[in-house]
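Data deposition worksheet. Section B asks for the primary sequence of the deposited chain exactly as it was used as input, without tags or linkers unless they were present during the calculation. Section C holds the resulting structure in token form. Section D is free text for depositor observations; keep each observation to a single sentence. Incomplete worksheets are returned to the depositor.
Section A, Depositor: J.P.
Section B:
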Amino acid sequence: MDGETNTLHPEASQASAISAKTQALASKYDLRLPRYTSYPTAPHFHGGVGAETYGQWLEALEPGSPASLYLHVAYCAEMCWFCGCHTRVTKRYDPVADYLDALLSESAMVAKRLSAPLKVTHVHFGGGTPTILTADDFVRTIDTLRADFGLADVAEIAVEMDPRTATLDYVKAMARAGVTRASIGVQDFKDDVQKSINRIQPIELVAQVIDWLRDNGITDINMDLVYGLPHQTTSSVLHTIDQAIAMAPRRVSLFGYAHVPWMKKHMRLIDEASLPDVPERWSQYLAATAHFQALGYVAVGLDHFAAPDDEMARALSEGILHRNFQGYTTDTAPALIGLGASGIGYLPQGYVANEGEIGAYKELIRGGSFATKRGIAVSTDDMVRRSVIERLMCDLAVDLGAVAREYGLPDDTFATELAAMDSLEGDGVLVREGGVVHITELGRPLVRAVCAKFDRYLKMGEQRHSRAV
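Section C:
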């Protein structure tokens, strides 16, 4: 059962009647902009930060300080045509096992370079498809991380899951290993949408995996949905949301599909004529955001929604929500160690990114070197602007004077940027109250356009970023 029902959602009719003003805003501000999961953003990383610099940064970490781990499992059983991740398709397990050996070797290298053990509070398995690992290899990986880093007793361990490759044995292994959160890739439940992106995934399969997780004590369930896909309509997106919410996830991410075939060649397999235009993407986003809130979920930043009693909703209300390469997070650790091909991490000194090509990554690790290919050291100016951008992305508001004072700078540090927002305020995207900027509900999908005002690296109109809406 994937079709649209005859149920009328008031949000659909409201969003489909997009005003002329909103269409003008879509045209005016729908620039290609970074997602601001870091600042400076990844296109500005460079080869001047390499393996030796990374090693020195690791050595300088304060003993016992909080840290997070990100493990990139860079293989999938099948390529989804909408996917923007670094991944490789394989039908055999040997390449996966060989890659995992290299990843665990990298883990040991990082642990050895530390001056003393850290306090790892968050572990995130991303991909690719983490559930492509065997159950035994998954448990071995967690055991290795515990031995290398000493995970905190209350560490959150989160795993991205493709229901098509998940098994009951794997779920049981996750529970034994201490997994606390699972993120289910759903995208859309509609048949023609699934076929158009090469991801056939019946709703019954998703429900079965969620039942397995809950039966084994993993009750913090996230779901990933996508709008802007081929053949989607506003009504069909709302119907998918209803189907998803019926399974009671704690959190839902609603991402806009980024069609970048010049970067991801497999996206050329998607029929561009079937993609929704900008006004329809607006309609889908606006209707979905309103519908989640009508269903009792808290809107978090640009594209996340959480149950009111979820930790993420509480972090938002307390002003301590953060944003990193996995999106919105409650993780407050000052260091994130990225493991695996294309793994990205951050430390107090700056950002580092691993070699993305799997063969080259394995060769570097087996040669005894970190696989750091590029990165960027952050200046004080970068850190100040990162704070401003993070608060805008998380809270949809920022007190510019307060941020400046936190870094010992004058209250009017951002006077130039503040003065450059006349057009945004005139269009109803934001409101200025002295040095405080508030994004309006109308401006929520354009928050990245506001962040861009503080981005000293950005060349407006660059085509390597995804659309703002």
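Section D:
The two ends are 29 Å apart (CA to CA).
Residues 430 and 439 are 4 Å apart (CA to CA).
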